[in-house]
Design a protein that fits this description.
single chain, TIM Barrel, alpha/beta
């Protein structure tokens, strides 16, 4: 069994940073000590580098099957490991939508052959597949979600159907993860601005169309129903300060029945950026005010929001062009999420220990992922080595997404991902990939 020692890294883990060696045997961490020496072992010199547990991204849209012109499990997992993401959870809005257990397992089979990172796939939910969704195996599937799907084949997300939520929440023992916006409010706002601007609504009005009211109204409704049933609920991509203040920070994350996340783009961009970037920062929920951006970070630090995700959703350049109604919502993020968070660290807005907590530790706790998310003896060696003093610039030449664009193009970052290990395998090393290895299926505790 192959052995590696990562020598003299600054290990960031469980609220502390210490310089030590890490012995990896096969897929797992065997020993962590101030100094280690072994014979017949590969040495990775990490002096001056920071060793972090790999990022676990609980919300990506890798587009396979059916939408592979945008991205594939292979292409986007390759970009992910280059960005320090060692595990991902993928959404069901592929073609066909992942609405049966058979289609779900087909995605796992495909990932086992092509993914460079560890993986899990959400089971999709709509009005027609409740019984199939309830069969979801909690130990082998991350959860159930409506994200990216229409509830009734024509329109709507699940947050707008309280009667169905009652039925789902009362019956499932799986984690349910939801996108939360009110469709009626969005429709009324869209009509209002279309009357004023026709099809050429300026992109800065996206924040007013998909506004705070639409998010807050829907999230309050979902939380009220969930609290009644005490089910395991996770709310994706909270985008407003008012919403963030709805969540409790009194319990440790592992004891919460309701959890929530912030996304990288909502922590970095604000409505001030629409004039410069336009459709490139058109997401649902929308990027909102500077006050919301700062408030989300504060809520993250206060543990009202529990984790950071990307909502990585690549579209082709053509699909992001055109008028407000033609440009699709979403953007690619997995390669640049950790550099963004490290940039916030450099700006003094978050400690590196808190950053690791929100991108790794807490994700593992929320989803009850087995033996990942921490740098611990016996745990899988999903690790990232980072140089905090290696500035670089995002250019078309170093963007790895299949769609070949990024909202961060021309952005300079102070920190660089140097190496990424997945299950003890060095899959990314200073711009080079070892593609002989594949990630593995994430496993979870049965009780959520």
């Amino acid at each position: 069994m192959k052995k590696k020692i990562i020598k003299q890294a600054s290990i960031v883990n469980e609220g502390k940073t210490v310089i030590a060696d890490v012995l990896i045997v096969g897929a797992r961490i065997e020993n962590i000590s101030s100094t280690l020496s072994e014979s017949n072992v590969e040495i990775i010199d990490a002096k001056g580098l920071y060793l972090l547990p790999g990022v676990i991204d609980d919300q990506v849209h890798f587009r396979e099957p059916g939408l592979t012109r945008k991205g594939t499990i292979y292409s986007e997992s390759r970009a992910a490991v280059a960005g320090g993401v060692t595990s991902f959870m993928d959404m069901p809005n592929t073609l066909p939508n992942t609405l049966t257990q058979e289609l779900l397992e087909q995605k796992y089979t495909r990932a086992s052959k092509t993914s460079l990172a560890n993986y899990s796939f959400f089971m999709g939910i709509n009005q027609n597949n409740l019984e199939d969704a309830l069969k979801t195996d909690n130990e082998n599937v991350c959860g159930i979600t409506d994200d990216g799907l229409y509830f009734n084949n024509d329109e709507g997300i699940l947050a707008n159907y309280p009667e169905f939520l009652e039925k789902l929440f009362s019956r499932t023992d799986s984690l349910v993860a939801l996108h939360s916006e009110d469709d009626a409010i969005i429709k009324n706002n869209t009509y209002k601005y279309r009357q004023l601007y026709g099809d050429n609504i300026p992109f800065e009005f996206h924040a007013l169309i998909r506004n705070e009211e639409a998010c807050l109204f829907a999230t309050k409704r979902v939380l009220e129903i969930s609290k009644k049933h005490n089910n395991r609920l996770h709310i994706f991509h909270i985008s407003t300060l008012e919403e963030a203040n709805l969540f409790d920070n009194k319990l440790p994350v592992g004891e919460k029945r309701i959890t929530a996340e912030a996304c990288v783009h909502h922590l970095w961009f604000s409505d001030k950026d629409y004039k410069r970037l336009g459709a490139k920062i058109k997401w649902n929920p929308s990027v909102k005010t500077e006050q919301d951006k700062n408030g989300l970070l504060a809520a993250l630090l206060e543990n009202k929001l529990d984790i950071v995700a990307t909502d990585h959703a690549p579209h082709t350049v053509k699909e992001k062009n055109g008028t407000y109604f033609n440009a699709l919502s979403g953007g690619p993020l997995v390669q640049h999420a950790l550099p963004v968070m490290l940039e916030l660290f450099h700006q003094g807005k978050i400690s590196i220990e808190k950053l690791v907590e929100k991108t790794s530790h807490h994700v593992a706790e929320i989803y009850r992922i087995k033996e990942r998310g921490y740098i611990r003896e016996g745990y899988y060696a999903d690790l990232v080595l980072v140089d905090l003093k290696n500035e670089w610039k995002v250019t078309p030449e170093n963007i790895l997404y299949k769609c070949q664009w990024s909202p961060f193009e021309n952005q300079c970052f102070k920190s660089k991902i140097v190496k990424t290990l997945v299950n003890g395998n060095l899959v990314y090393d200073s711009g080079m990939f070892n593609e002989t290895w594949r990630g593995t299926r994430l496993k979870f505790s049965k009780i959520r």
